[in-house]
Structures are given as C-alpha cells and as structure tokens.
Write a structure and sequence with these properties.
One of its GO terms (biological process) is DNA-templated transcription. One of its GO terms (cellular component) is DNA-directed RNA polymerase complex. By secondary structure, this protein is an alpha+beta fold. The chain has 3 domains: 222 residues, no CATH class; 181 residues, Dna-directed Rna Polymerase Ii 140kd Polypeptide, Chain: B, domain 3, CATH 3.90.1110.10; 162 residues, Alpha-Beta Complex (Hypothetical Protein Ta0175, Chain: A, domain 2), CATH 3.90.1070.20. The protein is built from 22 helices and 29 strands. The protein has a 5-stranded antiparallel sheet with strand order 10-11-12-13-14. Strands 19, 24, 27, 28 and 29 form a 5-stranded mixed sheet that branches. A 4-stranded antiparallel sheet has the order 1-2-5-6. Helix 10 packs across helix 11 and helix 13 packs antiparallel against helix 15.
Amino acid sequence: MEDDEYEEGMEMDMGGHQHLQHRGYGAEEEVEGGYAGGGDGEDEEEEARDEEEITQEDAWAVISAYFEEKGLVRQQLDSFDEFIQNTMQEIVDESADIEIRPESQHNPGRQAEFAETLHKISFGQIYLSKPMMTEADGETATLFPKSARLRNLTYSAPLYVDVSYRVVKKGHDCEEVTETAEYPKVFIGKVPIMLRSSYCTLFQQSEKDLTELGECPYDQGGYFVINGSEKVLIAQEKMSTNHVYVFKKRQPNKFAYVGEVRSMAENQNRPASSMFVRMLSRAGAKGGSSGQYIRATLPYIRADIPIIIVFRALGFVADKDILEHICYDFSDTQMMELLRPSLEEAFVIQNQQVALDYIGKRGATVGVTREKRIKYAKEILQKEMLPHVGVGEFCETKKAYYFGYIIHRLLMCALGRRAEDDRDHYGNKRLDLAGPLLGGLFRMLFRKLTRDVRSYVQKCVDNGKEVNLQFAIKAKTITSGLKYSLATGNWGQANQAGTRAGVSQVLNRLTYASTLSHLRRLNSPIGREGKLAKPRQLHNSHWGMMCPAETPEGQACGLVKNLALMVYITVGSAANPILEFLEEWGTENFEEISPAVIPQAAKIFVNGCWVGIHRNPDLLVKTLRRLRRQIDVNTEVGVVRDIRLKELRLYTDYGRCSRPLFIVENQRLLIKKKHIRALQQRETPDEGWHDLVAKGFIEYIDTEEEETTMISMTIRDLETSRHNPGEAYSETYTHFTS
C-alpha cells in the first residue's frame, strides 16, 4: 500500500516538475506572456487541487461536522420537538366537539320557552409557555433543571388551550339564537419538558451561560426531570403497520401459509386492526388433496370467511373480476389452479347481498333482522377492514385491489416464487421514541379530560346551574397522568390493563459513556423468559444501524440493543406532498386502469398503501432521489425500488433507522476537496452538516433502501471500480464509518 502511494506521489511530482519547466521556456521567449501563462498554470493547479478526490482523513472532518450539529441524542430531541410542535395540536384538533342536549324530564311542569337547546364546546389553538414553578407564596418564576433536581420538582411547562362555548337555542317558530363565549388560554395541565429540546430553558445557551446555570456543558440532554430524578424514555421496537407479511407455518398445522396486515389509518387514534389471510394445509382440509382453501379473518367477525365471499361482499361478483384482482395475468395457470378450490367453495353465494348476510351472520350480533346484519357487515368492510386504504363510502375498488394483493403475495409464497418474510429484518421494524410514546399517552389523557368536561356540563345543564368552564376542565388529569407514567415507567393510565412496564428508566450516571449509552438504548418488548433464539441474534440488516457488541448478558441479551453512532431515527412527515407529486408524475389510479396492465407496470406503495401503478418507474425514482437531494422532498423519505417484484415503496413514516452516506455518481464522489476545505474554514456552525445535505453530497438511507443500493466500503474501492470497468457498478454510494 505504501509503495502505491509512493508511486502516485512520484507521478504527481514529475507532472508538476514538467509543468514548471514548460512555464520556464515560455518565460524566456516572452516575459509578459510567461507571467500570464504562469498565472494560468497556478489557477489550473488550484482547480485540480479543488477537484481532487477526498481521502479517508477528509471524511473525519465531515463526521465531526455531523456531531457538532447533531450531537449523540438528536433522535430523542427531534422526536420530542415533533410531539410538542405538531402532535399535540393534531390530537386536540381531531377530538370532536362536545355536544350536550339538556334532558327535558328534569324540569317537569314547566313549559320550556325554547323547543331545543344545544350546548357546544370546542377546543382550539394550544399554547405552551416556558417551564415555570409556583412558590409557596403564589409567585411564579422560571424553572431551571438544576433547581428541579435539587428541590425534587418536575421540570414541566404549563399548557393552555383556547376554548369556545356556544349555546344554540331553537325557538318554537324554528328561529335560532346563538350565544357564544370565548375562553382564551385556559390552563389544561403541565407537560414535562425534555432537557436541551427547543422548549427547554437551556436550549442554544453558550458554554459560559450553562456553567453559570449550574449545568454541565458536556451534558447532551434528551431526558426528563420528574420529582427531582432524571428519567430517560427507552425507544420501543414494534413491527411496522400497513405492511403485508407472509409466513410459512411449521407443519403439522391446520394452515400452510398466513398473510397478515396490521392496518392503521394515518392520524387515527384507534388501535391497529389486524387482518389475516390463511391458506389451509392439505392435511388440515377435510377434502383430501383438493382442499387448499383460502380464508380471511376479518375484525369483529367470529369465523373465517372464504376469500371469494369477501370479494362478492365488496361488490365484485363475477369470477373473472375476482381473479383479475388476484392474478392480474390469466396465463398464469399455476396460480389459477391454487384458487380453484376457493372458487368452488363459494359457488353457492352469487350476489352481494347474500355475501354480506353470510358475513353478518358470523358477526358479534345474534338474532337480528337480515337488513341489520347486512348493514353491520357493510360497516365492518367499510370501517374495520384495511382502514389505511380508506374508511369512506367509495373505497371498495381500492380495498379489493389491496385484498387481492395480499392473496397474490400469499400465492407467490406458496408457489415458491418468493421467500417468506423475515420478522427480524430491521426494515420491518419501527421505533417508538419519546414523541410517539408521549403522543399516545397525551391522546388518552386528553380524551379523559373531554369526558370529564362533558359529564360536568351535562350535570350543570340538567340542574339548571351556570356552567363554569374553569371548574369543568380538570388540569390535574393531564399533569398527573404524564407524571405518573414518566415516574413509574408504567406506560398507560394507572390501574388499567395493557400498560407496558419499564418504558421510562432512571438515567444511568455511573460514567459519561454509560449516560450516552442509556440515551441511545432500544428495547424489544418480547417476554424475557422466551426461549426463542431468532429475535436475539444479530441480523444482517443490523449492519451499520445497531452496535453489534453492546448488549447486556443474560436474559435481556439481544433484546436490549444500542444504536450505532451515526444512526438517525426518522421523525416522520405527511404523505400528502408525495401523493401529490405522484399524481403529477403519471401515477395511474385503480379507477383508470384495467387489471391486465398491472404485470407490465410497477406497483407504487406509500407507507404500505397501494396507491396505483406507474409505467416508467426508472424516471420516477431518479426524479424522487433528485428532489430529495435538493431538499424539495423531505430528506427522511425512503425510496425503495424493488426491481424483481416490480414495486416502488415510498416511506414517510416515523421510527425508521437511517444513516448518512456520501453520494457517488459515475464512480466518483460528489463531494470534493474544495468542499472539505470550505467546511474546515467555515466561520459559523450553520454552514456545516446541514449545508452538505442541502447541496446533495450526502443523503440519509434507511434500512430497507440500503438493500437496493450499492455501497462502496472505502474510497479505494471506487478507484478500483474506475480502473476495472468490467467490475464497476452502475450506482455506488460510499458510506461513513459508524
């Protein structure tokens, strides 16, 4: 290796020497021209130096810029900021207005002057002030983390909301009279504040100021102070929602293959509704070898329903229509044969009403009329089956395509054309950080608060008392609810089933390194007694995302992990900009296409929801990546092009692990020596890391996208691929060390 470097140095030196000699001759012949030529030569040399490839040492300058801007607990801080800035307001906005009608039986004998009275309460804008504390004499003062620790206080900030109270009175002559009262900034509780987040008093303070406030300048923040003790929220692993998984069952079993989707609509506060599609094994079916029936399990329906009946209930009656939504291609006889038993099984049911009644009979309600059963089945299909595809009136086509896609995946797996999915692949996992964890808790507590307001106002109205909203809103609900979970680590409301334990832990302060390690820890919520080895093992997809060595010994081995140094966990962004972009760039909706064209085009998924097909996915991917590098599309968006399966999967959701990589085009790094020099000579810290991402030298790649990219391990690999074009790769990224 040293010889190579020596030879390269020789070549450069010789080249430089020849250059100088050449300039010398020019100077002898014509002095002025010589000087001018000399100037040009120097400029050229300067330019050549600027365009030089970077070395491994230069990469460290970029890594330093990353840590200067991001620090080691950025994933915690960004997640919390997202919760305060957006999630809380969204939760308040999505809560329905409280509507109360007085019960007329409470004033017998009196003829009401109005035929109908309606009380309406709605919540508006929320406000969060700086962390405050109230002294014994009632004085308020700004609270700093140091005094919270010393005086065993909770480092939290008051939360206010605008409340509007309307009384609509309808007279006997149908005239309406509306009285409105606005209550601005009503106190609804205190929210614990994460240290060093945008809402903390220590945010962007200089080292000198921090020292004066009694804080360590090297402390990274990312934890809470609850009753004087430091608490950290451990990131919780979960399977990603809206994702189709197909698993092969170990035989002997009633089922051979199972396809499952945990479907969750965006911005919905309901738990995920699961849907399963199961193929019976040959032994499991009573009809001998011919009985590979496929059944679907719908939410709130007791028995498994044959898949063809589900299609007919959705309004697709003809066998041809149904098969088009599953196979797409009628020349695929193997797949059609696998569906034959299912078609024969559902032959008796040949219209939508009968199919809906069949499903309704197996519902939770027993002994109701046929009309009610059909209505019940319709509602289940509309609201509970695959809610992420849509919960409105006209989503049947979309749902039929998605349901067909699940079955298609199941059949591909059964025919051996596609491997079963891997539960332990890190692309299939999402991490719940402080933001989503607090968001779920706040949603629960805010709902409780509105329920209490409703019952208080109902009481007042029934008894003819004056409504006082200050008494109606119990600020203690949110304050003590958030405090309880952070203090005990039991995530959820006290004395309620389904609470998770150990989510919040006392921050480890043994050494500086142990503190940092604790702030970057992950937990898999699997029982520690389980004998399963798979979830504990190091998976290929952990490479570059998880530390392979730092995991405890004993029971929690492999279930408690730590993030690698440069990993960033996505905060999540709205999918609407992506959907609008796709519409403009020629994505065809299901309404516009016939199923026969699907095999020729690429299926497009956004956060697991199939939105349409595209005839030219190459161009689409190139455009998306270009826009992401220009920050016209959020840098967190994952673009996964699966060429073999003809799928393009786009992700904008939260909790994906991603890491920054240098971008390479035509086997050359886009970042050059001049950019490194500018980085090292920058005067303000703003021109650092963010600038490199904005200029398109670096981009974040998540676990799933990583599998569709070529990553060069060293800069020397790139040189080799340039010199041996036979071995070169068309698109190669090179990555940082982690």
